[in-house]
Amino acid sequence: MRVVGLKGLALLGASMMLAVGCGEGSQAECESFSDCSGETPWCAPEQTCEALPPGHQIGVGDGSPGTVILEEVYATERSMELTDLAFNPAEENELWLLRREHPSDEPCEEGNATAAGCGALEGSTTTIKNFGTADEEVIVKVDPNAWHFMRRPPAMAFGDNGFWATVGEERTANFLDGQADFMGPVLWSADLTIHGEEPPPGLNGSHFDMLHNAPYGMGIAHEVDNVYWVFNGMYGSLDRTDFGEDHGVGESDHTDGKVLRYVNGELSRVEGVPSHMKLDKETRLLYVADTGNSRIVRLNIDAGDLGAPITLPNYDGISVYDHMDGAQLEDIVPAGLLEQPSGLALHEGVMFVSDQATGKLHAFTLDGEHLRELDTGLGAGALAGIVISPVDGSLYLVHQREGKLYRVDVIL
């Protein structure tokens, strides 16, 4: 358990008035949070009891120690990284965590491969069923060919059809001295009797599809069916990637895939730091942590016109592989406040962002107004993926470097 103090909140330092009938209505006067209750538990800066404000999941603060507690709720069974997390929308209270090994200096090149060097490229998952209950069940899965299909994964996203997808932060999915820039997003089943299990003879891993077109993938977000948006770190672009009809477990026909490349060269990655992204499916606006440019941007995914074909090698033989012209990124949080934005979550009109360089959590309106911040005290290199639980409404975050999962508990 880590007790955390709040900083930079507008309500700090306000003088307090004597409580009179607090908790009975939204305008009851208060001196501290203890004077408020029920549907109006927050002692607002105006010294009245109010409903919890937007972004309260990272604290509302009264300046006293213990306002926020970081509660450690999971740690990997050995030293490794956690980069992302997501709740499976098809299962009640089932949390998935994305894991990868720490980087290794050992070689993984053709003719000079070591078990340590190649093994460090493998990612894996932890699935926690009945998360946070007495019936909690923890299941760790490693794909039989994780070396290829789940290579150093920084991000994951669930679809609404029983599938989910990852990207890989590497140039190639083969030996590291291979000439082809052969890494790209991978489609997986959320069925744990399939995912991470040995496929029938002659098949390759438990994946359901892959497109080898997005080296140094840093983030991913679901749109519809088997369509995902990918942060392509090599080309600084957002790629709308449609896997098409999945090819079945362990198969290899990728030819029905489609890729449209947006805002080519306008994004920038930071090595080792995930760049998470979320699509607001109602407004059709894609929010992106542009880590290397220290900002949050968004893209209207319906904007743009079909441009020239992408001339780089088409390893999968797909028929649609084109640039999209005319779409523009909108700066929502310009560079200045954030240093290395990484985690990103949307919840009830609030955008939550984690900054890996500072160890701070931030809450913004969807148009970029800064609501509040929390210094977790975890320091640089810690914060990556974040999510708001659909069950308890709390914010959960991963400590990337230490492989730990925390819940932010707001104490009123």
UniProtKB/TrEMBL annotation:
Record carries keyword Signal: yes
Keywords: Signal
Signal peptide start-end: 1-19
InterPro entries linked to this entry: 6-blade_b-propeller_TolB-like
Database matches in PROSITE patterns: PROKAR_LIPOPROTEIN
Highest taxon of source: Bacteria
Keyword Plastid: no
Protein name from the UniProt record: SMP-30/Gluconolactonase/LRE-like region domain-containing protein
Source organism of this protein record: Lujinxingia sediminis
